[in-house]
Structures are given as C-alpha cells and as structure tokens.
C-alpha cells in the first residue's frame, strides 16, 4: 500500500525493504517492476548511497538502508498517529451549552435537546434571567442563549429574532369580572399589588421602560423572577402583571384560573431572541438558528396559539 505522506521513491524503498524483492514490491504497490527499480534508483542517487545488495536473493539491505528504514518507519508511525488524531477531531461531536429564560424552559428545551442528542457529545442547559444569560455568553460560559431582550448595547454578540408577541395583562378572574375593560388608571387603583418581573430579566426591563414612558406608577408591587411564582400568585388573587401568552404557555396548568386582557393602549410588544457570540463560526451559528426556529414553529407556536384561543386575547 502506498503511503500518502511519502513520495514514490520512499514508498518503493519501504516495499522492497519489506518484501526483499523488487518484483514482490511491485505487486504490492500495484505498479511494474521497472517503476519500482527506477524509483529506488532515484532515491539512491539523491542520497548518494546504495540501499540494496541486488546480488543476493532475497535482496539485502545495506547498513545505510537499515539506518534510513529505522528513521522512515518512525516518521511513518508519527504521521499515522497525527492523521488518526486529526480524523478523530474532525469526527468529534460538539458540546452545546445552552441558556434559556424560564418562559421557554418547558415548551422548547425538551424538544430542542431531543433534536440535538444524536449529534452532540454533551448538552448543558441553564435557566436564568436574560441579563444573567447574556453575561455568561460574554464570559464564554454559554454557546447560545434564548432571551427576551436583545441587549443591543452589549458588544460581541450576534442576535436573531425568533418570535414576537403582544403583551397582555394577567389578573385574577375575580378582578377581571369587575369590569369589561380596564384602563391604566383603573389598574393602578385596583387594590392588589402589581407583580413585577425581576429587573435582571428581559421582561422586567421592558416592562420598566414601558411603564416609565407612559408615566404609569405601581407603588404597591411585588418582584419575582419566576413565571411559576408569578402565575401562582395571580391565580390566588394576590396580584396582577403585564405578561405575555408565553407566560401562560409555561404554566398551562393554571390557565383556567387566570384572566387575560389586552394591554391598554398603547400596546406593548415583546420579542424573543437567540443570542450567541459573534466570533462563533457562521456554519454552526446558522445550523443552530435553523434548528431553533424549527423547534419554535413546531412546538411553541401551537401552544401559543392555543393559549390565545383559551384566554381570548
């Protein structure tokens, strides 16, 4: 067998040294005996030594040939190990470190992990607020993060908008029964606390900016960083909030215990983003984005539509 690392002369030399015959070497290499003879002769000319005693049968290696053979075989072994290592590296399955906001942890992540399982050597997931996830991306502790804010002011990140939804007001059913519609002034005076999403999260940040811009004050407030706690408090009549249909997707078991109304004018939209470092290869980035979009459309959007149908928003 010809070795891709060596030229024709070295391959011929190795074959003759192994077979101790020019004709057998030619057969082994799949070439003519004349080609082997000429190749060995060229090598001898370049080295200015004789490598074989052709007067013996089988042919014998000279002392110079023995030295050359030792070094060539060592080189061959090293090159084969290097080639094997390079091939194994090219076949290594990647590790995926994925961060996700709580609002997508149930509806998206199980299906995404299932889709990645066959091509990943390891999958690590972390749930956190959008800000925490973005900070981990910057520190290279995550590869991808699903966030509810773009954080455009943070450099070195690549952002893809996956989804956009209208915010809604979530309130206890008993509170919703008091009026057919609500204004911001009426909500501020409703008598129960405003449940505020943690400021470190994208939703909390967006809500803060929106309420401040509209000069809407909610002095009586409770701050939480979990949609599970948030929806549970609302279901128990302990507060109201500005959320989204995805808040209920994550907590579908409470959907019949919570009322939802459109956000009073002006409306508020929220977007979901897939964020990664901008030094990531374009190929791996596109591949993951495409998969994430497929999983969103197949598993999250149908639940989103069902929630909207159930709550009438």
Which features does this protein show?
313 residues, alpha/beta, Arc Repressor Mutant, subunit A, D-Maltodextrin-Binding Protein, domain 2, five-stranded mixed β-sheet, three-stranded antiparallel β-sheet, 12 strands
Oligomer: single chain
Q: According to CATH, what is the class of the largest domain?
A: Alpha Beta
Integer tally of domains: 3
Number of helices: 13
Any overview of this molecule?
- It contains 13 helices and twelve strands.
- It is an alpha/beta fold and 313 residues long.
- The strands form four sheets. A five-stranded mixed sheet has the order 4-3-5-12-6, with helices on both faces. A three-stranded antiparallel sheet has the order 10-7-11.
- Strand 8 (194-197), helix 10 and strand 9 (221-224) form a beta-alpha-beta unit.
- Helix 2 packs across helix 3 (33-47).
- It is rod-shaped.
- The model has no long low-confidence stretch (mean pLDDT 86).
Quick structural summary:
This protein is an alpha/beta fold and 313 residues long. The protein has 13 helices and twelve strands. The model has no long low-confidence stretch (mean pLDDT 86).
List the topology elements.
Blueprint: H1 8-19, H2 22-29, H3 33-47, E1 52-53, E2 60-61, H4 63-90, E3 95-100, H5 102-105, H6 109-116, E4 122-127, H7 130-138, E5 144-147, E6 157-166, E7 168-172, H8 173-176, H9 184-188, E8 194-197, H10 202-213, E9 221-224, H11 227-235, E10 241-243, H12 245-250, E11 258-262, E12 269-277, H13 282-311
Parallel strand pairs: 3-4, 3-5, 8-9
Antiparallel strand pairs: 1-2, 5-12, 6-12, 7-10, 7-11
Helix pairs in contact: 1-2, 1-3, 2-3
